[in-house]
């Protein structure tokens, strides 16, 4: 068996680097650890952290294909963040004018959750602990 320790990072390729950088830093509040422009690839790589823990690599590449469908395309289905107060999270989303789905209840746990979309339509979940 592999001796995995934890998830190291999640890599996301975006179509509009400026919009995605704003979304992940200003709306979600992730912290920039490092930003690199790779001239040979005409690509940015933005390392983002949550509470000091490296979490997301945000990439830009020229001419990337669109996501096939939402959310049941092969590959990453959604990105989920744990929150302690879903009502406060929704108020903050309202403040940033980010649309969210109606709050639902997880049938297995009884916990509340909702979804938004990043600038490329990647579903992002907020799950109340």
From TrEMBL:
Keywords: Metal-binding. The keyword Metal-binding applies. Pfam families: Glyoxalase. One of its GO terms (molecular function) is metal ion binding. Residues 6-129 form the VOC domain. CDD domains: VOC_Bs_YwkD_like. It comes from the Bacteria. The keyword Metal-binding applies. This is VOC family protein.
């Amino acid at each position: 068996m592999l001796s995995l320790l934890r998830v190291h990072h999640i890599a996301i390729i975006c179509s509009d680097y400026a919009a995605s950088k704003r979304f992940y830093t200003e709306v979600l509040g992730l912290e920039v650890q490092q930003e690199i422009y790779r001239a040979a690839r005409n690509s940015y790589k933005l390392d983002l952290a949550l509470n000091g823990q490296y979490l997301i690599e945000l990439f830009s590449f020229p001419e990337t294909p669109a996501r096939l469908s939402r959310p049941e395309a092969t590959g990453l289905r959604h990105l989920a963040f744990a929150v302690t107060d879903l009502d406060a999270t929704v108020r903050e989303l309202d403040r940033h004018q980010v649309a969210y789905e109606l709050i639902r209840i997880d049938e297995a746990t009884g916990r509340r959750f909702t979804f938004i979309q990043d600038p490329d339509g990647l579903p992002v979940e907020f799950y109340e602990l």
